[in-house]
Write a structure and sequence with these properties.
Organism: Streptomyces bungoensis
Family: Belongs to the glycosyl hydrolase 3 family.
Strand content: 25-35%
Pfam families: CBM_6, Fn3-like, Glyco_hydro_3, Glyco_hydro_3_C
Radius of gyration: 30 Å
Keywords: Hydrolase, Signal
Number of domains: 5
Protein name: Exo-alpha-(1->6)-L-arabinopyranosidase
CATH architecture of the largest domain: Alpha-Beta Barrel
CATH topology of the largest domain: TIM Barrel
CATH superfamily of the largest domain: Glycoside hydrolase, family 3, N-terminal domain
Largest sheet: 8 strands, antiparallel
Helix content: 10-25%
Length: about 950
């Protein structure tokens, strides 16, 4: 007797197209099973043989949070390479390591949350390290390359599924879950949406992650642009994954809804498909979805829509075709990946200044390498563990020989004496070093919080600590064995951390003057350190209000003195300064200033005073404002990953010529910066696009050890594109890379336009005397702007200047061409009226949500008064009446061309809520012709729309 095996369900048939397979599997799932899929950790469906699935694997510049991995330069460093081909190869290497780790540990996921395409609008943003550039085109070029590498080149199966972060207009950590970015339509379309759109349209993106903040008063997890823009850019099903905890924020922090059922339903309907909330526990989300279904806020069809998008990604990843998936085997820590990490680190180095050809360093040079980062290879929150490590000191030892390199870290050496006369002491550690795994790799999970090491005590001699002040009074204390003081859950101090790190950094302190000494405050807990019969620990909250020990800080040696001694004995001093990526500028914490911390300024001054042949190497996640006038040479590199030191040494020695370029403007001082929460790059004249001051170093800047000549500019317009080419020649004596940059600007625009904007770039390698043609095909659409008067893109007729050169300010060739386009036209206000948010100029305005679901309105940012100007309004056949859709309470005054008030529209009684609008009408004297309309808002008034009639 033969027993027939059950037929293979269609969703298991690799010969069927993915959409049909998705539909089949979706139809087999129960409502409870589909609801459970909405959480980040989707459970298995054993009856169908469907495995558990997790959205989210961090892979910003290497595989993160999964242990040792190849660590590439930070994202802003990859942006500084201006090299999409290199970045594509980095993405490919990362995706192979994701696959390899997934095979070893099923905690890993193939849905990678990378890259970050938020534009680096403001250099004080704490997460500056995560983005590529302040420019949308450079950002999209680098992001597109990285996503193509992550996706792989198989036509059907993706190696990993990249999700772009963070939708939308997200550039502040301060109050990030409750602050609202006021983004006018031109900034939205010309700036913030552009980087996302170009990358999505390139075809290697699986989805996006909304940001924590609000845009125009509406949480990003309810963004109407997910429907009206994102999902129109591709025919692929895009998976929208919430950021961690953000679904609950809609009620708990933002108070945007009264119940979690309402909030969850609204997010799902807006387009969120996977909810990252409550860790691995999916029950709160599933309960909220069930509640929303029971209340009629959602239908099963709404759930199906989200689950279908998830399943589409899972099929693309080959989950249901293990015998056909070409990506099952990954590669990990290969020689090729190590070489690529070094190549990327070298290409990311930017030479900012090189007076008198001090660099490259000649063979036999005696070098003093000094500074807080001279012997460091720092990781950030999204780094993997280091399998290999190269610090600047190690790189210079290797390249020049240890006998020719002298090191002085420059930290202050201190002892801390208690009121009783004893000193803090670090006992010898007998416990095994469990923080290091295979090949000495650091395990981030054990960097702090250890209780297997003895806590601090006191004794008559004490321990000499290395004290580093990172700025804003934030400091770290390091024991002689290299471990940092840290506080574990039991509240005791131990020398237990290899580096500062963790979501809450437990290795940072502050010395607070108190009487004749100082209190030592532990910043992770916010408590003071006390010394008692039960040992050295942070004070308990109820312990006399958290009273701490008063310490006398005895300085054994100043860091400046050690730096000066080393500098005075050297031919050249290399000062390595910058930031620790976990301190004073990181996720959850914005910077407060562009200035280099005072301690590091003192070290730099000591080195320069002892030896004028001083090279400053800034290793940082963001720009600094530094006085470079008396420095012979300056370089910048982001934290460069595992090969950072080797790469820097090769650049200093001239084994490779620097060719990194700045991906954002370096401003000269804090005075050049707008408010952190001012997202109007046009009105506030932000970024190189609009900034009218003199930067410390401009966007695109970077020097070389070679020289390059540009000639033979050719420009023609054909096939809806501008075709630009020129010849670049290496006129130097060494092989080097040059980054040719093409910019454009409207010469006589009818509205404020960028001073210049990047239209294309090419990084080329040229031998001495070699020349090559660089060509750019620029679609005419790249020169369009968002016309608020017409509500769409417009190419304006008139002259446009094209500028080709080595940076946004180093222009070598230029020409002007006239383009046919549309002439400026006045606003047809009698037909369309005026949207409040479609202003040309404003003062004191905040853009807010017209309704919870869609639309914009405007209101005084401070709740009292604001002004709007809508220019060139055409009243055609004449009007005698004005009406306005208003909510809240207050007065709207209308005038023309700066003249007297023609009408006051008043809401005396407040509306029921901010989303209940009342149409208020007033008669005005007859108006004809074209005029500028000026609107003054007084009081907590919301204006959605103004209409005119005869």
């Amino acid at each position: 007797m033969t027993v027939d095996s059950p037929p293979t369900p269609p969703f298991r048939d690799p010969q069927l197209p993915h959409p049909k397979r998705v539909d089949d599997l979706l139809a087999r799932l129960t409502l409870d099973e589909k609801t459970a899929f909405l959480h980040q950790f989707a459970p298995a469906v054993e009856r169908l043989g469907v495995a558990a699935f997790r959205t989210g694997q961090e892979a910003l510049h290497g595989v993160a949070w999964m242990g040792p991995a190849t660590v590439f330069p930070q994202a802003v460093g990859l942006g500084a390479t201006w090299n999409p081909d290199l970045v594509r190869r980095v993405g490919e290497a990362v995706s192979r390591e994701v696959r390899a780790m997934r095979a070893l540990d099923d905690r890993g996921g193939l849905n990678v949350w990378a890259p970050t395409v938020n534009l680096l609008r403001h250099p004080l943003w704490g997460r500056n390290e995560e983005g590529y550039s302040e420019d949308p085109r450079l950002t999209s070029a680098i992001a597109t390359a990285y996503t193509h590498g992550l996706r792989g080149d198989h036509p059907l199966y993706w190696r990993t599924a990249p999700v772009l972060k963070h939708w939308l207009a997200h550039n502040n950590e301060t109050d990030r879950a409750t602050s609202s970015a006021s983004v006018r339509p031109r900034v939205l379309h010309e700036y913030d949406l552009r980087a996302f759109r170009d990358t999505v349209e390139a075809g290697a993106v699986a989805g996006v992650m909304p940001a924590y903040n609000l845009v125009n008063g509406r949480p990003n997890h309810l963004s109407p642009y997910l429907r009206s823009h994102l999902r129109t850019w591709t025919e692929e099903d895009l998976l929208v994954c919430s950021d961690a905890g953000a679904p609950s924020n809609l009620v708990d922090a933002e108070h945007y809804f009264d119940t979690h059922e309402e909030a969850t339903a609204a997010a799902l309907l807006a387009g969120v498909d996977s909810f990252t909330d409550h860790g691995t526990d999916g029950s709160p989300i599933t309960a909220r979805v069930r509640g929303a279904l029971e209340r009629g806020l959602l239908t099963e069809a709404d759930v199906d829509t989200a689950v279908r998008r998830q399943l589409s990604v899972r099929f693309r990843l080959g989950e249901f075709d293990p015998h056909h998936d070409p990506h099952l085997a990954g590669e990990f820590d290969t020689p090729a990946h190590r070489a690529l990490a070094q190549e990327a680190a070298e290409q990311a180095v930017v030479l900012l200044k090189n007076d008198d050809g001090l660099l490259p360093l000649a063979p036999g040079t005696r070098i003093a390498v000094v500074g807080l980062l001279a012997d460091e290879c720092k990781l950030d929150w999204y780094s993997g563990g280091l399998l290999h490590r190269s610090t600047p000191l190690e790189g210079l030892y290797e390249r020049f020989g240890a006998e020719r390199v002298e090191f002085a870290e420059g930290v202050d050496r201190v002892r801390l004496r208690t009121a009783a006369g004893a000193f803090l002491h670090v006992p010898a550690a007998d416990a095994p070093d469990e923080a290091r795994g295979a090949e000495g790799a650091l395990d981030p999970a054990l960097l702090s919080g250890r209780t297997d090491l003895p806590p601090l005590t006191t004794d008559p001699a004490g321990t000499e600590f290395a004290l580093v002040d990172w700025g804003d009074g934030v400091l770290t204390l390091r024991a002689p064995d290299g471990r940092y003081l840290s506080v574990a859950e039991d509240g005791r101090l131990r020398a237990s951390a290899d580096q500062p790190g963790g979501w809450v950094v437990q290795e940072t302190f502050r010395l607070e003057p108190h009487g004749s000494g100082h209190l030592l405050k532990h910043l992770g807990t916010g408590r003071h350190v006390r010394v008692g019969a039960d040992g050295v620990k942070v004070a308990d909250p109820g312990d006399n209000g958290g009273t701490g020990e008063v310490f006398e800080v005895i300085t054994v040696e100043r860091g400046e003195d050690a730096v000066a001694r080393a500098a005075g004995r050297a031919d050249v001093v290399v000062v390595v300064a910058g930031n620790d990526p976990h301190i004073n500028g990181r996720e959850t914490e914005d910077r407060t200033t562009l200035d280099l911390p005072a301690h590091q300024r003192r070290l730099l001054g000591a080195a320069r005073a002892a030896n004028p042949r001083t090279v400053l190497v800034l290793t940082s996640a963001y720009p600094y404002a530094v006085d470079v006038t008396r420095l012979a040479a300056v370089l910048w590199t982001a934290h460069g990953g595992q090969a950072a030191g080797t790469a820097l040494a090769r650049i200093l020695a001239g084994d490779a010529s620097p060719a990194g370029r700045l991906p954002q403007t370096w401003y000269a001082s804090d005075a050049d910066l707008p408010d952190l929460l001012d997202y109007d790059v046009i009105g506030a004249r932000q970024t190189y696009l609009y900034f009218e001051g003199t930067p410390l170093f401009p966007f695109g800047h970077g020097l070389s050890y070679a020289s390059f000549a540009y000639d033979g500019l050719s420009v023609r317009v054909a096939d809806a594109s501008v075709h630009v080419s020129c010849t670049v020649t290496n006129t130097g004596d060494r092989t080097a890379d040059e980054v040719a940059q093409l910019y454009g600007r409207a010469v006589d625009p009818s509205v404020p336009r960028p001073r210049r904007e990047l239209l294309g770039h090419r990084r080329v390698t040229l031998a001495p005397g070699e020349r090559t043609t660089v060509a750019f095909d620029v679609p005419l659409s790249a020169l369009e702007f968002w016309d608020v008067a017409q509500g769409g893109w417009r190419l304006e007729q008139g002259p446009y200047e094209l500028l080709l050169g080595a940076s946004s300010e180093d222009v070598r060739l230029r020409t002007t061409l006239a383009l046919d386009g549309e002439r400026p036209a006045p606003r047809p206000v009698t037909r369309r009226g005026l949207e409040g948010a479609d202003f040309d100029e404003q003062s004191g305005i905040a853009i807010v949500d017209r309704t919870r679901r869609a639309g914009d309105a405007v209101t005084p940012a401070a709740g009292t008064s604001a002004e709007l100007v809508h220019r060139s309004c055409d009243f055609a056949d004449g009007v005698r009446e004005v009406s306005a859709q208003l909510a809240g309470e207050g007065v709207l005054r209308l005038s023309l061309d700066g003249g007297p008030v023609l009408a006051e529209l008043t809401l005396l009684t407040p509306t029921a809520d901010p989303y209940t609008y009342t149409t208020v009408t007033a008669r005005i004297p007859a108006v004809e012709g074209v005029h500028d309309v000026r609107l003054a808002l007084r009081g907590p008034l919301r204006l959605a729309h103004v209409g005119f009639s005869g």
